[in-house]
Amino acid sequence: MKPVKILIVEDESIVAMDIADKLERLGYEVSGCVDSGELAIETVAQTQPDLVLMDIVLQGDLDGIQTADHIKNNFQIPVVYLTAYADKNTLQRAKLTEPYGYLLKPFKEAELNATIEMALSRINAENKINQQLKLSEQLRQKAEQLSEIRSRYLCITSHEFRTPLSIISLSAELLKEYNDKMSTDKKNEHLNRIQRALKNINQLLEEVLTLGKAEAGQIKFYPERIELSSFCYEIIDEQLLSYHYKTEVEFLTKGECGGACMDRKLLRHILTNLISNAIKYSPDGTPVSLTLTCENNQAIFTIQDHGIGIPPQDRERLFEPFHRAINVGSIPGTGLGLAIVKQCVDLHGGEIWVESQENINGEQSGTTFTVSLPFHTKP
Length: 379
Prior knowledge:
There is one protein chain. The protein has about 375 residues and is α/β, with parallel strands linked by helices. The chain folds into three domains: about 5-105, 3-Layer(aba) Sandwich (Rossmann fold), CATH 3.40.50; about 145-215, Helix Hairpins; about 225-375, 2-Layer Sandwich (Heat Shock Protein 90). The chain has helices spanning about 15-25, 35-45, 65-75, 90-95, 110-180, 185-215, 230-240, 265-280, 310-315, 335-350; strands at about 5-10, 30-35, 50-55, 80-85, 100-105, 225, 250-255, 260, 290-295, 300-305, 350-355, 365-375. It has a five-stranded parallel beta sheet, sandwiched between helices. A five-stranded mixed beta sheet has the order 7-9-10-12-11, covered by helices on one side. Strand 11 and strand 12 form a beta hairpin. The two termini are about 30 Å apart.
């Protein structure tokens, strides 16, 4: 444990030397002896002592009380007065600076030690109280943030649920009222609408829960060794099956990825959302590519499509929850996928960036997402 550093501010050098000797015998560290308020302020700034022993009568333009007030307001370092003055006016001025002690000269070593120990005890108690207050404030702010997150997601999710619920309600009502008059094809059409709406609701719930947990800091990062090539093939197969093989996904690998260690669940969110978007926003039969490059202890995933592209005004808001580009039209989606991707990339300590050209008047278009994730050490 480091000794307590004490600065002595005393205009009489013999008295200052005597106090310094007493302090050293008591086991304290003397950070300096100065004789003026100006020097005291300068020395406090340089040495940051734990306590200042301050005489009231000093050389220079500042007396001890003015100096103590400056030190309190600018450095938050406690002061104990050592003075021969005990008149009412001096005491009243000194009290305004909220000192940690007031010791009258001449004093004995034991009295000095007792005053310092009482001051240090008060300092420790106040520090503990301040730490508890700071912790309480942090917890209060965290609670407010969590409450705000819950309220925001409840409000937005309630709004997003209305469309699929309306579809389910309308289709179910039509099937109920006109079941006998409907053709088999028409019935199947309404049943398919209900199934798609239910799928959208389920997806929305899953994504809201995932993103809400991420923003609330409730998703933990658990890296494990992953064979990245096999993992990428697995994700690609899942997405092709989900979209009924409406396109092809070309997969290329570069470099040695044997040392990859990442969070499997978070990586699945990243690749699933980016590959799904590439397929979803591309015309049928338009190829999509995934390139995996391993170099410098990091994996770089590049997902490229030749789809509708992203308008410039939407690119800055890509990772905002529920934001969708203005050109998506009737293409289904919740607007949460990229927000989840960003959270998962951040948890990996990685980076994500996008390049895109919007499809205007039939011009060449498409989007490329690049994700860089560092290799981690398995805990």
